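Anyone able to model this chain together with zinc ion?
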Amino acid sequence: MKIFAALMIALLSGLCAAQDQNQKPPQPVTRVLRCGTLINPANGQVQHNVTVTVEGERIKEVREDGPSTGGAQAIDLSDHTCLPGLVDAHTHVLLQGDITAEDYDQQLLKQSVAYRTILATRSALHALDYGFTTIRDVETEGAGYADVDLKKAINRGIIPGPRMQVATRALDVTGAYPLQGYAPDVPVPHGVQLVDGPDEGRKAVREQISFGADWIKVYVDRSYFVRPDGVLDDIPTFTMDELRAIVDEAHRQHHKVAAHAMALNGVHNAVEAGVDSIEHGDYIADADIRTMVQKGIYYVPTIYVGEYVAQGRANAGARVWLDMIKIHADTFRKALNAGVKIAFGTDVGGFDWNIDPAIEFPLMVKYGMTPAQAIRSATLSGAELLGMQNDIGTVSPGKYADIVAVKGDPLSDISLLQKIDFVMKGGEVYKSGDRK
Ligand SMILES: [Zn+2]
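re: yes, here you go
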């Protein structure tokens, strides 16, 4: 039986080799898009009647009122606004909503990593369908290195999905992260890799990078409460020695660090340690806002998820989540006015993947951004945070042909971005909606 299988493999590979010799290298496919309007997030300007020529997976040419390119397959988006593929810099493909602690525990205790990964392939497809052609997935919540495998399968063309940067397991200290509250003699999984002490932190960073982490994710605070003076306080998780060791080890290996930091001490410690992005940042002290500007640390505010989970968590006894909505809005305004770099991120997975993460856009505008600023945060700023600005973030020659389109003008009605009906990633059309 084994010999038969080996023979078949040899025969088939021989056939393939023979076929390869007869075939010329494939010519890159040329596609032409006619966009009624094209938004340039770099300056917030628009161009009208733009022809975008795509060769293979990259953009070859962008020109206004360009003549038609003979022979190439034209895609008519003349009644659409085109913009670069969107970037969601804070996702969890391996999580399917966790309003309450029970929702979270169920996923870790009753679903195998294999099953969760199957669900994650659906999350990835959702992201692409909504127009998010790139995501930064900031930890697997107990599903190990499944994000690395998902990313590989997408990159190899096995399943459709967005470009991904992944953070694998994330780091937190003993006693700070679910699952919690079980009997001491009952071993339960944790949503993170637990590390204590600078050496364990360094070792975990080395381990995660060796297994494919693009980013290191740290949880730097927990147990939130509002002080009488309105400041959102917390218990910091890592000591400064631990945090500095983790950041130093990641940076030494040219990897970046994302910090879940929601309140006073967590944010302060994270910016002092020199992380690259503050995730959530519900409360950021004025001095820390200044430090973020000085050091160029990004703010990924994830406003919608806070509002989404607030009532459920308040019903479960944690009223602070309702108070945090206003605190978060105030912080967002302050950071925006101070010139902090803001990248669009949603925490989708923390809320149901059936909800389009573009629901974040109207909140960013409600709390002070112009629609053009919000679009920039989800394109060029996201690209810069990920270090991918030479490949994505604008519709420009040389960059990947990651282009989305929507009917109407999102610069006058930002909520339209929840209705993207054309998605191209790397020159391939993944969605063409009701477009003729
Ligand atoms: Zn998150």
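Residues 1-20 have pLDDT under 50 and may be disordered.
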